[in-house]
Amino acid sequence: MSKPAGAQMRPPALIQGYIRALTVENDTFAQLLDPTALYAALGHPSGIEELWRRDAERWTTALTADGLPKARVLVIQHAAEGLAVARSSPYLTEEDLALARAELLAMTEQP
Q1: In the predicted model, what is the mean pLDDT of residues 30-49?
Q2: What's the CA gap between 59 and 15, in Å, rounded?
Q3: Which of 51, 74, 79, 84 could form a disulfide with 22 if both were Cys (CB 3.0 to 4.6 A apart)?
Q4: How far apart are CA 93 and CA 109, in angstroms?
Q5: Taking residues 99-103, what's their average pLDDT?
Q6: Could you count the other beta carbons within 10 Å of the beta carbon of residue 83?
Q7: What is the pTM assigned to this prediction?
Q8: What are the pLDDT digits (tens) for 51-88?
Q9: Peptide bond connecting 12 to the previous residue in cis, omega within 30 degrees of 0
Q10: How far is 44 from 38, CA to CA, in rounded Å?
């Protein structure tokens, strides 16, 4: 995926990329990448619990390796996922999505 015009990818690059992927103007990436929506859609088919656990562990490890406090990573991660789901509803306008994306990205810049 290419960076949006003017985007700067620097540490914490992974969480910034995660935010951008789930909140870009075209929601194709959001629909494909959102693990929470996928979990909600698939539910609990037999044998998938271990896959969900391993995937969640990998994401948590990778996102927290960016260097932000774990609590902030969790808030940002799940807020981005929530935005990805809400974008297909009348409750989130494109303008509001852009505002929320900017706020989440700003949170990655805080010490």
Answers
A1: 70
A2: 10
A3: 84
A4: 25
A5: 97
A6: 20
A7: 0.75
A8: 888 988 999 999 999 999 999 999 999 999 899 888 88
A9: yes
A10: 11
Token reading at 42 = 């698939």
Contact 14, 66 (CB under 8 A): yes
Residue 3 has pLDDT above 50, yes or no: no
Residue length, the chain? 111
Question: How big is the CA angle at 32 (ends 53 and 6), to the nearest 5 degrees?
Answer: 110
d(CA 84, CA 21): 9
At residue 109, the 3 state secondary structure works out as: helix
Residue labelled with tokens 């969790």: 74
33: Cα within 13 Å, side-chain hemisphere: 21
Angle between the 13-23 and 49-64 helix axes, to the nearest 10 degrees?
Answer: 120
CA distance 79 to 23: 10
What tokens were used for 50?
């271990």
Separation between Cα atoms, residue 80 and residue 92, nearest integer Å:
13
